[in-house]
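Reading a protein record of the kind used here takes only a little practice. The record below shows the convention in full.

——
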Amino acid sequence: MSVLNRIVDTTRQDVERRRRDVPLSELEAQLATPREDRPFSEALTGPGVSVIAEHKRRSPSAGEIRAGSTVQEIVCAYERGGAAALSVLTEEQHFGGSLDDLREARRVSSLPILRKDFIVDPYQVYETAAAGADALLLIVAALEFDDLARLYAEARAIDLDVLVEVHDEEELDRALEVDADVIGINNRDLTDFTVDLNRTFDLLTDVPAGKIVVSESGLWSSEQLAELERVGIDAVLVGELLMRADDPEVALRELCGGADPADEVL
């Protein structure tokens, strides 16, 4: 069984547990209260390549990433560093995240937030909105087409933006079939976790004009971002590079090709 399949199986079990603890009707009741609108997709359409900066505690391939840090410390550094949006990894058993991480990010930052998780059940869509996210991730490789279409429609119906993630041509076709507005091209193969940045360049040629395209994984330099901007990529999602940096704010500024404000004073 692949890593992805193991995570999806675990996720389904966790969803059933959470559904017993907090019924869907309770989540729906929470959504009756209006909240501040932070459009996620619009944040990715500014000049240059926008950065979605990710809070990520650990991963199956890398283990623990930044021991002792707090959500507030990281996401506030990202906001100061010029991130257009945040991604908060909420999967618990393999990535060490939680919905509490998302809620804390919402409390301390004004940026739009993507819930990054393995969304396989409509319950998670309402859970995402109730926790304060502005968008969610749907991974085509983790879903049958009917489930992808249903989850996409459920999310849009409650005003959540959706980043639909693909990593090959067949998955891109399925994303286009549900008419996804924001398409993420993951350079990491979720079956073996290898990374190939050429995946973005190869698949981009098949994406119709008018879509917002996000390149994910394997990004570490301002030169890469400049090349992605040249070919028409709208945004990138970056996690480990920033989480491992001594100063995430400075690392983000350097990635975007900008200077540290402290350097400008000297």
Notes: Strands lie at 50-55, 58-59, 63-64, 85-89, 113-116, 135-139, 161-166, 182-186, 212-216, 235-238. The chain has one domain: 3-32+49-259. The longest strand covers residues 50-55.
